[in-house]
Give the backbone structure.
Amino acid sequence: MYQTTNTRIIVPEFDVRQPTSLEAVLRELEHNAKGTRLLAGGTDLLVQIKLERTQPARLIDITRVPELMGMAVKDGMLIVGAATSIRTLANGVGVRERYTALAESCDAFSTVPVMIMGTIGGNLCNASPAADTAPALFAFDGAVELASCEGSRRTVPLDEFFVGPGRTVMREDEVMVAVRLPKTAAGTGSAFVKIGRVAADISKVSAAVKLVRKDDRVSECRIAVGAVAATPMRAYTAEQYLAGRRIDAKTLADAARAVEEDVKPITDVRSTKEYRTHVAGVAVKDALGAAWQRARGGERQ
Amino acid sequence: MREKAIVFEVNERQHCTTIPSHRTLLEVLRALGYVDVKCGCEKGDCGACAVLVDGEAIDSCLTLAWTVEGRAITTVAGLGNSNNPHPLQAAFARNGAIQCGFCTPGVIIASESLLRKTPNPSDDEIRFALSGNLCRCTGYTKIFEAVREMVLTRSGGVLR
Ligand SMILES: Cc1cc2nc3c(=O)[nH]c(=O)nc-3n(C[C@H](O)[C@H](O)[C@H](O)COP(=O)(O)OP(=O)(O)OC[C@H]3O[C@@H](n4cnc5c(N)ncnc54)[C@H](O)[C@@H]3O)c2cc1C
Ligand code: FES
Ligand code: FES
């Protein structure tokens, strides 16, 4: 992904803005959307500017906008401001207990400074197929809230948000305001598994599972995998197969095989197509096993 | 605005300066004479450029300088110097955790950021906190031991 070109100098200067309200951000986008980029933690954008993959004419720092920061629970739904840092999210009250896979996907970020600087909104808007928080948000049936300058707001299910590598359904005049996660049911268990070269690296393959365990069967299950297609994706075949079944060695093996058939990975600097296909199944299997165990803990409460 | 006049603090000293929009915090700090902040990979991989911003470790190479308006920055020299070393700096020297020393400023900043939030970290927490810092010399063991010793001394010898 990172070619070794000169990373040192950011060549062109750009216009900069540091608004302190969402309204001000939207006004900035209205005036001149062309060439304008929002800057959150900068951990993706700065690298891209340095590698001359993008040359913004204007940068809007959104890290001083209170409406985009922090977390709240509303009608049982967890709402996470788009500019909330990965670390703040991981340590959020109740996040680890109720949205375990999401907390684990934050823990899987390569380095502490990147967790402190990087934001959930940046991770999603950058739309890397390997974005670590995406599979967990798919598994929890997350949605994103977008606002635009004409005052319109829309909520897009994460399933429909990604279009391709680096591409989403967001328009240039839109800003992501928040990520919304529905309440988790009793008996829910979840897990995230990341396979990288070393722990501190971008994923070769990642998988997140959320399931509800009822009468010792899977009553509901969502599985998502990352870095194995043009966008993070759901593993529908495995989900359907597991519904109503018990998790044991055979169903785990069958689910893994179903995942292998659904994924469409490529070969790149980090891994090969064949390896990713096989390991996607293994990662889902591990995540399923952990989620199943945790779900039992949930039922006892 | 292609430049921005900002006020920020470095090692408890106030700076008012006009910064071109494309300059990173790393470049600006070094230009202001804070050359204890090291320039390594310049893309977030090595941690040599780490500084504390309001007490938390960030990579200054991935931070545009104008965004730190109003913030307090601490570089490793702001923690202590050779006459009056910070306990972490002393622990690093005692444990042989410094060879060429290029990674040391970033490693000490990462350690300090951890200890401010988690005064009594587990071994895994120490390892994780240092995972964003590359060292070509020490093999990490001595660095880890220095931080661990510091934790031990602070907690009166009780290790989690
Ligand atoms: C050393 C290093 C290690 C990394 N490791 C990982 C890893 O392990 N896992 C992983 O998933 N990622 C990793 N990343 C990538 C990156 O850190 C994450 O994707 C991070 O979450 C990006 O967030 P940010 O706030 O820094 O985004 P920025 O760089 O600020 O923004 C990214 C993109 O999103 C847009 N954007 C940001 N916020 C909004 C918003 N609210 N509305 C609309 N558009 C917005 C920006 O315009 C830009 O196009 C790593 C990066 C580096 C440099
Ligand atoms: S120089 Fe900033 S992380 Fe390497
Ligand atoms: S001591 Fe030389 S790089 Fe760490």
Remarks:
- Residues 104-117 of chain B form the longest helix (14 residues).
